[in-house]
Amino acid sequence: MAGSDSGGDASEEDTKSSLEGQRKGAPEGPPQQNVFQAIVLDRIDTNLFLAKPEILWKPPGARAVFGGQVLGQSLAAASQTVAPGLSLHSLHAYFVRAGQPEHPIVYDISRVRDGNSFATRSVAARQKGEWIFTMQASFQRPEGYSVCHQARMPDVPDPESLPTEEERFTKLLHDPEIQPLAKWILSHRKKYVNPIDVRVVLDSLNWHTEEAKQMRVKYALSGLGMPSQLLWFRVRERLPDDEHVHHAVLAYQSDAGLLSTARVEMSWKSFWEARPMMASLDHAMWFHHAFPRWRADEWLLYAMYSPRLTGARGLSHGHIFTRDGWLVVSCTQEGLIRFGKDRGLPPSMRPETKVSKL
């Protein structure tokens, strides 16, 4: 397989990331249980990287490979083609087609520009010769002193005081009003441990409660009347001290929950009754602080809000804070939200067609 025509031989200045050649040292387990395994790729040429089917993950009830995994893998590939000393500061991506876990994904990197202060990389992800994803990422050398300001971090409970994901799922599965599709998805999710430890402060499950209304006022989320979610997250396993690993893992996790913020005002019961179909359309991230000011394996607060949902497209923004209050990453995503479609649902979840015996 030929390399990208935008590259040439690998530069001696390419970053020697722990993403390269680390699969042997990565913890064992399927990709849905080990986020590091899910982003480490095989380098097959100077600017070509391969994700084999065995590391691709399609979440329960989903129609495609998890978008965050494709995003993280693209970034992991691009990061290995930049010179040392350059840190990611932004990325902009489009999800073009649904990725399928039965086929490998090839990531083709174009070295758009290598300047004194910035480097730009373009990534084309393909399956069976067709584009499924495209991304541009920009890397920057550290600057000296600059004037700074940032948004204030919401004052929320510590993650240790909040229920674990397993505790939340168990409670939901015992809810007599749980919808069949939601029950099917949650029961399959409980079969493995999420490699990301997630502790929810505010989401669609408690949005309509009086307690949630008080929280939205307290956390200054109610002023503009936007649907919002708040959650803590961190990777369970200790990650290598490599900024490119942490960037890729954070990109992986940033896709989880951002789009669902756009439908938070719809009750949990009504949402699942409507037989939803959701898919990310595009995704952008800005990294305000360089590693190791933050780590993906230490607690981070994800504050998400959605200013608009119309035309079956929802727009959501997110801010990621360190535990001590630094705003380190901002995200924006637009996604598709459709209701009333049965295509692609498990057979047991599809509405029955009853034939009259009269």
Automatic annotation (TrEMBL):
<comment type="similarity">
    <text>Belongs to the C/M/P thioester hydrolase family.</text>
</comment>
<dbReference type="InterPro" id="IPR029069">
    <property type="entry name" value="HotDog_dom_sf"/>
</dbReference>
<dbReference type="GO" id="GO:0047617">
    <property type="term" value="F:fatty acyl-CoA hydrolase activity"/>
</dbReference>
<dbReference type="Pfam" id="PF13622">
    <property type="entry name" value="4HBT_3"/>
</dbReference>
<dbReference type="InterPro" id="IPR025652">
    <property type="entry name" value="TesB_C"/>
</dbReference>
<feature type="domain" description="Acyl-CoA thioesterase-like N-terminal HotDog">
    <location>
        <begin position="58"/>
        <end position="140"/>
    </location>
</feature>
<feature type="compositionally biased region" description="Basic and acidic residues">
    <location>
        <begin position="13"/>
        <end position="26"/>
    </location>
</feature>
<protein>
    <submittedName>
        <fullName>Acot8 protein</fullName>
    </submittedName>
</protein>
<dbReference type="InterPro" id="IPR003703">
    <property type="entry name" value="Acyl_CoA_thio"/>
</dbReference>
<comment type="subunit">
    <text>Homotetramer.</text>
</comment>
<dbReference type="GO" id="GO:0009062">
    <property type="term" value="P:fatty acid catabolic process"/>
</dbReference>
<keyword id="KW-0443">Lipid metabolism</keyword>
<keyword id="KW-0378">Hydrolase</keyword>
<feature type="region of interest" description="Disordered">
    <location>
        <begin position="1"/>
        <end position="32"/>
    </location>
</feature>
<dbReference type="GO" id="GO:0006637">
    <property type="term" value="P:acyl-CoA metabolic process"/>
</dbReference>
<feature type="domain" description="Acyl-CoA thioesterase 2 C-terminal">
    <location>
        <begin position="216"/>
        <end position="336"/>
    </location>
</feature>
<dbReference type="GO" id="GO:0005782">
    <property type="term" value="C:peroxisomal matrix"/>
</dbReference>
<dbReference type="InterPro" id="IPR049449">
    <property type="entry name" value="TesB_ACOT8-like_N"/>
</dbReference>
<dbReference type="InterPro" id="IPR042171">
    <property type="entry name" value="Acyl-CoA_hotdog"/>
</dbReference>
<dbReference type="Pfam" id="PF02551">
    <property type="entry name" value="Acyl_CoA_thio"/>
</dbReference>
